[in-house]
Design goal:
It is globular and about 75 Å long. The strands form four sheets. It has a six-stranded parallel β-sheet, with helices on both faces. It has two domains: 241 residues, Aldehyde Dehydrogenase, Chain A, domain 1 (3-Layer(aba) Sandwich), CATH 3.40.605.10; 128 residues, Aldehyde Dehydrogenase, Chain A, domain 2, CATH 3.40.309.10. Helix 2 crosses helix 7, helix 3 packs antiparallel against helix 7 and helix 5 runs parallel beside helix 6. It contains 14 helices and 16 strands.
Length: 416
Amino acid sequence: MTEITDIVKKAYEAKTKLYNLDIKLRDEALKNIAHEIEENKDKIYGANKEDLILSQKKVDEGKLTQATFNRLKLDENKMRDMIKGVYDVINLENPINKVLWARELDKGLVLKKITCPIGLIGIIFEARPDVMVQITSLAIKSGNAVILKGGSEAENTNKAFFEIIQNALKKTPEFPLEAVNLIFSHEDIKSLLSLDEYIDLIIPRGSNKLVTYIQSNTKIPVLGHASGICHIFVDKTAKRELVENVTLDAKIQYPSACNAVETVLVHKEYPYLNELKNHLIENGVKIVENPESYSCEYSDKILTVKTVNSLAEAIEHINKYGSHHTDSILTEEAENAEKFMTMVDSAGVFHNTSTRFSDGFRYGFGAEVGISTNKTLARGPVGLEGLCIYKYRLYGEGQTVGDYAKGVKQFHHRDI
């Protein structure tokens, strides 16, 4: 048995123990994690500094993108939000064993739809080490065991976080330590993707190349998005100040984020196009008007700007070239906004606001394991609810199907 197979099998066994662990103990585990991180900030920053030094060399050599380097760096703001995110998850309602609905099929025969964890989840992420804390928090709260695989560029930071998390979990009575795991090598990914008999779901967070590789090399269901090609459509009635503020925020607030805008479509009758371009350029944004591809994710202060003839043309462009992540319309026409939000086929469709709001923390999910453009299981920022599925529980009193097949008994299907 290989080391990775052994880890996965132990995690598979631990998932049932975690599922059955009382919610008070799961929340206690999260409090311990938040406390340990707060107490060990200097250790985390030190490990992150080591990763940054090594990664800067790779950036200089052209082996690592600046966008990836930016995601790697931890600062006080990220640390604050990360710790707050853990407490936010603690304050959320227990997501499992909730009765979604109940139906009396017949007297004494009751069907209930009840939430439960997905089971064992493999999560493969690049660059952002704070993702480990977000994912671990959501997994513990939702009763899911996890196998975490971080990028090599963040290895020291990931190791520091994992050690701190494990120390916190050891202080939690009855907590199954094998439910939270960290693996390191690229070879481990290959092994992980082959263990479909144990792993219920894979969630990749990283480059298009990473996600495509995972989707092509496993039988395990994959939840996530390959790219974040987000759009803003500026309608002819949009207010100038709103357009300039929202577009700038969506581009430069965090250019390497997957929910940063990459293309702005402007109605041909919008009167302040030149002013918008000048505003963006003055704030360090490079404007591209004839791109090689409209499906380019710049992850930088670069923005495609294109004039369109109508709302319909904008919708058609977005559905053709977008990644079904997040798209926004800026308009004073409520009817146009509703049409846009209905017709654009994306996980997030916004009106008069920045695409950067597409985030589990900002949605009040506490944190997120990623953003999904899938159309099954979960879509958009995936928080606690996205990590739960459901099962049907049927409570009877000795009923048999034969009686109903023969017409001796009849179903009345009454919701209760």
